[in-house]
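URGENT: need a sanity check before tomorrow's submission.

F., can you look over the HK97 gp10 family phage protein record below? I want to be sure the sequence and structure line up before it goes out.
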Amino acid sequence: MGIKLEGFVEFTNKLNKSISQVSDVVEDALLDCGNDLQQKSVDITPKDTGTLRGSAFTEAENTSKPSVIVGFDEEYAIFVHENLEAHHPVGQAKFLEQPLNENKDKYVKHIGDKVNDLLNKN
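Structure tokens as predicted:
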């Protein structure tokens, strides 16, 4: 008794292509979310000279899994972010954490919608 598999190579090639496409779509969606988070964060970042706001960045992380980093390049950013005692005429503490917490469900939905769009297209 045996099993004959026809089209197995074609099937695995299509599957591998789909996996690659999903990975690309997820990375693009993550960048969308990262850029949105960066803008929302900059909008509430304390502003003195504007240097901290100007140091905001969003970049795709070069790893085997799609990921994005959103942050601020200034060394003092962590201190400004975490200091709940400081009063800022413009902006506030937790300027990165707050917009992430407020929008995380929206970001998850955006990524899921992009993957669903791809899968429904194929």
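My own read: Strands lie at 56-60, 68-72. The two ends are 35 Å apart (CA to CA). If you see anything odd, call me.
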